[in-house]
Design goal:
This is MarR family transcriptional regulator. The protein has 154 residues and is mainly alpha-helical. It is built from seven helices and three strands.
Length: 154
């Protein structure tokens, strides 16, 4: 296959993959992908820090701006998945904790995601999926590296 043809096929495959609604499984339980991953991070963090996590910490872990994290957290708070409280020693900081309802929503969603991924893995096969993930990560590294080169001043 000519180099130009495979490049065009790659672009089409990337576009098709980007259009897949992988969050559909999570949305069935009332969580967006961002909310699901945030609750997962918060739950993990709270195992060692029961007082919760700062908003700025969550934003850093998610690689989003603090205002972006706050917008998402407002929605999660309205749904009853998290509670926020001001740090008494530094009122500029806000703690986030997962509520009982948030734990339950995450558990239901994680179970549904696991079942979905079991079906996908079963159809694809573990070995082929491992190869795909390894190649996808390698491709992502190369693309990120080339994008960084493009953004460097000459």
């Amino acid at each position: 296959m000519e180099n130009k043809e495979i490049q065009e096929e790659l672009i089409r495959a990337l576009h098709r993959f980007g259009r897949l609604n992988t969050g559909q499984v999570m949305e069935m339980e009332g969580l967006t992908q961002g909310e699901f991953f945030s609750l997962g991070m918060l739950r993990k963090h709270m195992e060692d820090h029961p007082e919760g996590m700062y908003v700025w910490e969550l934003a850093r872990y998610m690689r989003v701006s603090p205002p972006g994290a706050s917008r998402m957290l407002r929605g999660m708070e309205r749904k009853g998945f998290i509670e926020r409280s001001v740090d008494r020693s530094d009122r500029r900081n806000t703690y986030i904790i997962v509520t009982v309802q948030g734990h339950a929503a995450w558990e239901r969603t994680a179970k549904r995601v696991e079942q979905f991924m079991d079906r996908v893995t079963g159809r694809m096969g573990g070995e082929d999926l491992r190869t795909l993930v390894d190649l996808w990560n390698r491709l992502s590294d190369i693309i990120e590296d080339e994008q960084a080169k493009e953004s460097m001043p000459c």
